[in-house]
Amino acid sequence: MTVLETASIADQPRYDCRDAYVETLAQLAEADHRIVGVVNDSVGSSKLNSFRKAFPDRLINVGIAEQDMVGVASGLANGGRIPFVSAASCFLTGRALEQIKADVAYSKTNVKLCGMSPGVAYGELGPTHHSIEDIAWLRAIAGLTIIVPADPIETAAALRWAAASEGPVFIRVSRMSVPKVYADDYSFVLGKAITVREGGDVTVISNGTVLWRALAAAERLAAEGISARVLSMPTVRPLDVDAVVAAARETAGIVTAEEAVSGGGLGGAVAETVVQRHPARVSILGIPEFAPTGSAGYLLDRYGLSPEGIADAARKLVRTGS
Amino acid sequence: MSLTAEHTTMPVRARLPVHSSRAEQVAWIAEAAKQIRIQDLKLVHHAGAGHIGGDFSAIDILATLYGAVLDISPARVDDPERDRFILSKGHVAGALYTTLAAFGFLPVEELATFLKPLSALNGHPNRNKVAGVEANTGPLGHGLPVAVGHALSAKLDVSLRRTYVLVGDGELQEGSNWEAMMAASQYQLDRLTVIVDRNRLQQGATTKETNDLDPLPEKAAAFGFAVVEVNGHDHGELLDVLSAVPFRPGKPTFVIAHTHKGHPISFMSNNVAWHHRVPDAAEYQQALEELQ
């Protein structure tokens, strides 16, 4: 059983994925001396204090210097280490974008980039601290695997996969509390969508902190007699093209829902695929502007990324398609 | 004469015996540098592109490093314990390729493919395509942070391997270098050596006119480096300095190599026009004669 069976996903206990992140990183580091952490003063915000205590020499803190941080990680990889770079996603991807392109992706160095607290996690801190652009920026860079885990189980599984595979990887690690979507036996498979709920009327494709909201939306739709398929798409690059084409072919349309800018991310990837492979209607839910002040939860609701907002987008596709 | 034949004339140089005298080493490096310059001139002339001014600025440093300083050989490009050299000023890839070819890392005839379609010899070096290249560089301000990572990996391994990085002086205007220098100092990376190709010219003007770096020695010292200044075209000085690092235990080394863009060609030397100008037929002949 990959997916947890619950009466209602919204009622389940919530978890901070950073806890799974640091626990898994410590386990990996215990088993493999090559693993090191690289941070930009972000020890606390990455919850890496316990890691630093356990492996004092292997937590490299370059200070508030993101370009240097990613370059240093590239050099460490050349020396045979497996660096896990851990920094707020807005600064990791924004300030060090060229280092990610040249020193990591183009150089094919074995660097694992962990974008902490992405999306609108830092709600009230405003758009400078929101990392809604990260997926769109990175998706344009060849050779970079992009993973957006939905819960602590998937976060841990993606980290284990990244440590065991050779090459550059970006993983989003959320601080927004989420319920578990996956059962403990879940194992991450690169580039494969997971059908977390079967359905034939309409498809919702989601990942990250929004996936459980998509499931909650499907519960509402089921109560109205609408059967919504929910696809979890943890790997934005490479995308599971076959799963997207099947959804386009078999259902009335696709809603994409993600904690990211509403263009260039998961929604963009799905739309590009559909247009080229099997034209279908796609409704892209995301954050289309610099957000106003508000908590992360408020902002997700505001931009239609609540269960009701996602259900509403799906209803429109079903009604206008029939 | 065919292009390929032009590029197969450079003798590949084996390493000098370890007990060679200093005088023998210096003469040997000087001859290598001369051969590399001649080859680089042909490379740029025939490709119709390149950065010959910056190439000629850096070649004496490269010849000294590969000829007598770096513990590395064509048979050991993947040895984890090799010394590392990173060319941060990646636009002088032509100088690096000809140096690698001169010391047997790269077939000399492959130089004929420089900048040609599908060549491994891109205008900026790629570590996955060219044996001996440690980092993909080109955008400025990348090499020094990567070198800090190399040096840190050596320190974590309790290894004696050394890391050298060659940066352009104009390149030091990129802030990432200063981030990296702070980290190098903080981690006491005394087996890291930064060499600045201090030719005082950037693409279109002097560094002084653009964003002045001086007082560079004082700045580097203030960032925690042991600072040394050398004549970057004097093989003896370069050999002595680059072999003797670290100068201060616990401190990374900062070697300011005073150079001239286009050295030693009369009409190129210290002339800002030669950043990426390509010699025409007459200039090519004259430069060739001056080198020989």
**Amino- and carboxy-terminal Cα gap of chain A:** 34 Å
State the fourth-level CATH superfamily of the largest domain in chain A: Thiamin diphosphate (ThDP)-binding fold, Pyr/PP domains
Number of domains of chain B: 1
| Largest sheet: number of strands, sense, barrel closure of chain A | 7 strands, mixed
Q: Which fold name is given in CATH as the topology of chain B?
A: Rossmann fold
Strand order of the largest sheet of chain A: 3-2-4-5-7-6-12
What does this protein structure show overall?
The complex is a heterodimer of chains A (322) and B (292). Chain A is an alpha/beta fold and 322 residues long. Chain A folds into two domains: 9-179, Thiamin diphosphate (ThDP)-binding fold, Pyr/PP domains (Rossmann fold); 194-313, Rossmann fold (3-Layer(aba) Sandwich), CATH 3.40.50. Chain A has twelve helices and 14 strands. Chain A has a seven-stranded mixed beta sheet with strand order 3-2-4-5-7-6-12, with helices on both faces. In chain A, strand 2 (35-39), helix 2 (49-54) and strand 3 (59-61) form a beta-alpha-beta unit. The model of chain A has no long low-confidence stretch (mean pLDDT 96). Chain B is α/β, with parallel strands linked by helices. Chain B has one domain (21-291): Rossmann fold. Chain B is built from ten helices and five strands; from the N terminus they run H-H-H-E-H-H-E-H-E-H-H-E-H-E-H. Chain B has helices at 3-6, 22-47, 52-69, 93-102, 143-156, 175-186, 207-211, 216-222, 235-243, 281-291, and strands at 84-87, 163-168, 192-198, 226-231, 253-258. Chain B has a five-stranded parallel beta sheet, with helices on both faces. In chain B, helix 3 (52-69) packs parallel to helix 4. The model of chain B has no long low-confidence stretch (mean pLDDT 94). Chains A and B meet through helix 3 and helix 5 of A and helix 5 and helix 6 of B.
